[in-house]
Design brief:
278 residues, BirA Bifunctional Protein, domain 2, 5-stranded antiparallel β-sheet, globular, binds biotin
């Protein structure tokens, strides 16, 4: 890969110009180093920052993933950003924003690597290996959302040695899959544009309008899986997702179950899936 391009900082002024008149990215706060872009976005949102404000950093010292995990954030190689959203929705609908962001991120990544797919609930994978993750955090007043922080990490030019040993066979980056180094500024522009489009559709028509796009990108439908989460284990075949974003699974006893949270393991690998009965 082109190491010089991979190590250039983001062209933040060009990014700001391209997003100035849009909803997502109308304000972009840029940091060389930050603890976590999600933490900084939460600080800004609490202080009143408007919807669409984006926090981007070249590296994070305390990048966070789901379930208290660390998000590996080497400098100048990848993308770490968080977006402040203020959707007029109930708390129960907020989890759908993770899926909305999943569609947007997968579509953006597909512009470089067409086989990119969504792995419920919040991963983007290439050939079964994770290339991006989404961390959605929320503040609410009673049952209404006050703001949502949508945090997205995308491995763009990371090298295998950037990942700890236990992640090396589970994680990847766009660069090796695309066979060239990734222009991080261009990728960020495309990602923000896709999020703007998908979020606009969500506000106008609800998650039901995005569900077919999500299903079309899902790598789990028809797969035999095991799911662990919230103290429960499930095993069965994935049928799809519900309008509320829950994963619909036909378990080994033939019962339909709705899973709202958990880590999914694909039992039979990513060989061509059998069609599911509808
Ligand atoms: C996951 O897959 O566990 C979610 C990973 C989310 C990582 C991103 S990087 C930008 C933002 N800031 C954080 O601290 N986390 C998210």
């Amino acid at each position: 890969m082109n190491r010089a391009a991979a190590h250039a900082p983001l062209s933040i002024e060009s990014l700001r110009r391209s997003r100035a008149a849009q909803r997502i990215g109308c304000r972009i706060e840029y940091f060389e180093t930050i603890d976590s872009t999600n933490t900084e976005a939460r600080r800004l949102a609490t202080a009143g920052a408007a919807e669409g404000c984006v926090v981007i950093a070249e590296t994070q010292t305390k990048g966070r993933g789901r379930l208290g995990r660390t998000w590996v954030s080497p400098p100048l190689r990848n993308l770490y950003l968080s977006i402040i959203l203020r959707p007029p929705i109930a708390v129960a609908e907020a989890a759908q924003l993770t899926l909305v962001a999943g569609v947007a991120a997968t579509e953006a990544i597909s512009e470089w690597v067409p086989q990119a797919a969504i792995k419920w609930p919040n991963d983007v994978v290439i050939d079964g290996r994770k290339v991006a993750g989404i961390l959605t955090e929320m503040e609410a007043d009673d049952d209404r959302v006050r703001f949502v922080i949508l945090g997205i990490g995308v491995n763009l030019n990371a090298a295998p040695e950037d990942f700890p040993d236990d992640l090396r066979d589970k994680a990847t980056a766009l660069c090796p899959a695309a066979g060239r180094s990734i222009d991080r500024t261009r990728f960020t522009e495309r990602l923000l544009a896709r999020i703007d489009d998908c979020y606009g559709l969500f506000l106008a028509q609800g998650f039901a309008a995005l569900r077919p796009l999500w299903e079309g990108r899902s790598c789990l439908t028809g797969r035999t899986v095991q799911i662990e989460g919230a103290g429960r284990r499930y095993a069965g075949v994935v049928r799809g997702i519900g309008d509320d974003g829950a994963l619909m699974v036909c378990d080994t006893a033939g019962r339909d179950v709705r899973v709202v949270a958990g880590d999914v393991t694909v039992v039979d690998g990513y060989a061509p899936a059998k069609p599911t009965a509808s």
